[in-house]
Amino acid sequence: MNAPEYIFEASTKPSLPWHEVPLIRATEESVKGYGCLVDDPENFEIEIVQWPAQGWRPIDQGTGDEAGWVEGIFRGHWRGDVLYGENEAVNGNYVLGWSTDPQKAQVETQTAPRDQVLLWHMNYHPDGGQLFYPLDNKPFIIPAALPGDDLKPEKVVAFWCDGSKGLYIHPNIWHEGIFPVEDSQRFLDRQGKVHARVSCDVGQEFGVYLSCPLRADKIQG
């Protein structure tokens, strides 16, 4: 399977049905299993996973987990109907999704309300966890699913974060970049330096885009 391309014209993606993802308020209880909320990123350490053994001989103790982590600014910003992400920590640039059908989405001008992100892709990192901490105190959402390569659209949730705390996710948690509720937002991103990534092209694999709500009145419960 080829690695996905992250920068492209929205119109190169087909029109597909939408699967609405439940929007859940991020609390200590609701994020259990996925990760935790973070008050202060200064001394917060992410989990680093030891390199897996290739056969029956074990990895020597104290080795295979020494790469540590990297950090930088993650920016999410809207241009017209298209949401872009930029991750300085790993030199990544991404088209995260669209607010409307990609065949109609415009970059130069906004043609649809930004009530949702139509998500085409998710990934996870087997080598380490990841911290997203807002540098701007504004709401944001993060889509996520529990570990396992049998990802399905109905397994995905979106966490609504009010901007007062960061969200840390464990290794192997399916996720995508951070979705700002407003036009743009900056985050401290801290993640494993190896940056192993396992991807799923949701549109290609399941024939749908994941509709992640960006409106507070869509929060369940």
From TrEMBL:
Name of the protein in its database record: Ureidoglycolate lyase
Keywords: Lyase, Purine metabolism
Domain of life: Bacteria
Pfam family, one: Ureidogly_lyase
GO molecular function: ureidoglycolate lyase activity
Source organism per UniProt: Leisingera daeponensis
Enzyme class: lyase
EC numbers on record: 4.3.2.3
Catalytic activity: (S)-ureidoglycolate = urea + glyoxylate
Signal peptide: none
Subunit structure as annotated in this protein's UniProt entry: Homodimer.
